[in-house]
Amino acid sequence: GVQRGPGLYPFSLDQVLFAARLLSALLGSATVLVVYAIGRRLYSAAEGRLAAFFYSVAFIPILFSHQIALDVPMTFFFALSLCYCVGINRDRRSKDYLLAGFLGGLAVATKYNGIFIFAAVFLSHLLSRPGPEKKMTLRAIFDRKLGLAAAAGLAGFFTGHPYALLKFRTF
Fold first, then answer.
1. How far apart are CA 48 and CA 35, in angstroms?
2. Is residue 6 predicted with pLDDT exceeding 90?
């Protein structure tokens, strides 16, 4: 086996790597279910299954799910946030704004390129406005629900990356 240090850590490197790979594989598998949910909410159960199938056999998600890559948890949080963006587009409920923002913040905390989910939150908000209200106005941009998503996004970021707040000067 692997030699442990003199009481420094309670786990061996093999155990830590196994746990990290297991978590990566579980989040990668859970992303397949989220892709199904997005397809089902947007189209139908058949299209959701088809989207989930294509995602489940795609090379890069399979490769990264076997490794300890930050892309896997970021994609999971990104996809979950996108699922709530569908809810924003359909129902405009505050709950969808909160969850889309918070999960988007977790995606950014996991890997910074997750920031692009907030473009989807913003566009879902604009496209969900009824008829003639669809044009971009200051009123649409400064809507309370969009502010709620932004605040939840910050909360999600600082939840997933607390030292960005605790050690702000060195961040």
1. 7
2. no
Angle between helices 94-110 and 71-91 (to 10 degrees): 160
Gap between the terminal Cα atoms of the chain: 38
Cα angle 34-122-153, degrees, rounded to a multiple of 5? 70
Collapse the DSSP code of 162 into the 3-class scheme (helix H, G, I; strand E, B; otherwise coil) and give the result: coil
**pTM > 0.85:** yes
Number of Cβ within 10 Å of residue 93's Cβ equals: 13
Task: Name the token pair of 131.
Answer: 């008829």
Q: Is 4 helix (H, G, I), strand (E, B) or coil?
A: coil
Cβ atoms within 10 Å of 52's Cβ, excluding its own: 20
The pair of structure tokens assigned to 18 is 């196994």
Residue 148: alpha-carbon gap to chain centroid = 17
Q: What is the pLDDT of residues 102-131, one digit of tens each?
A: 999 999 999 999 999 999 999 999 888 776
H-state helical runs in the chain: 13-42, 45-56, 59-66, 71-91, 94-110, 117-127, 138-141, 144-160, 163-166
